[in-house]
Amino acid sequence: MMDLPLKTLDCICTRSESFVGDVIRFFTKKRVNVATNVANHCGLIIYIEGIPMVMEMLGTGLELNPVSDYDNYHDRIVAVKRLPFTDDQIRDARRFLLSTYWSGSVQYSYKELLKFPTFCKRLGLEKVASTKMYCSEFCEIIAQKYNLSWVDSATVGSGIAPIDIQFGKGETIWQEKSSV
Question: Is the peptide bond before 117 cis (omega within 30 degrees of 0)?
Fold first, then answer.
């Protein structure tokens, strides 16, 4: 899996074998009728000096971590999704993401995450100015900044979860085979 040619702004959907991961999957797995490994987290790929990194919202805020951190059983990639970003959008998004990361201004939104299973009722470009969000909301906000979306908002309802991205719009570059 790690030999896959990832591109900047690919979205990795991951699964962690943790209590929080179990809770997220419990409330969101019923959104799709599949027998596969379901994601409970997601982040966007960005390259730093040729190394693929994951820009992701964690409990500590916006973080930048090596893709290799997800190459184990406890935290593993279960899907990679790709939207048709243009080269100009990718360059612009990379600058935007890095400046946002280095500013340290974006924090995790526990308040909105605690609204499971409904999540937050607002989802859109107005949220780009917000300084608090959760992982899948972060990925969707970046996509919407460029008039794209990982999901069909009509089917998502009041919010977006990692599973919505995993089985949503965009090309599936890689999907872990089911262990069910």
Answer: yes
pLDDT in tens, 12-53: 999 988 888 888 888 787 777 776 689 999 999 999 999 999
CA pair distance 146, 86, nearest whole angstrom:
9
Distance, CA of 70 to CA of 30 (rounded, Å): 25
Count other C-beta atoms under 10 Å from residue 114's C-beta.
Answer: 9
User: Are the C-beta atoms of 137 and 131 separated by less than 8 Å?
Assistant: no
List the end-to-end C-alpha distance of the chain, in Å, as a whole number. 19
* Mean pLDDT for the chain overall: 80
Residues 6+ apart with CB under 8 A from 153: 123
Amino acid at 153: S
